[in-house]
Design goal:
single chain; 65 residues; alpha+beta; elongated; 12% strand
Length: 65
C-alpha cells in the first residue's frame, strides 16, 4: 500500500522477534522458583516505520490462500 501511494507510511513489527521474546518469557517463568502468578514480566520489541520499498525487511507476506 505504501508503494502504491495509498499510505504514506505504515507502523510494522517483526513477528519473529516477538515470538522469540515470548519464548524467552516462558523459559524465564519456567525456571523461576516463585509461586505461579507472583512474577510480572515485560518484554518489548521494536516497531518499525515502513515508508518505502527499502523497508521491506520489516514487512511480512500474507498468504492469499
Amino acid at each position: 500500500m505504501v508503494e502504491q501511494g495509498l499510505f504514506t507510511k505504515n507502523l510494522s513489527y517483526r513477528a519473529d522477534t516477538q515470538g522469540e521474546a515470548i519464548a524467552n518469557a516462558v523459559l524465564t517463568l519456567l525456571q523461576d522458583n516463585r509461586p505461579a502468578g507472583t512474577t510480572q514480566l515485560a518484554y518489548y520489541t521494536t516497531n518499525y516505520w515502513v515508508s518505502s520499498k527499502d523497508d521491506r525487511q520489516y514487512c511480512f507476506v500474507v498468504p492469499k490462500e
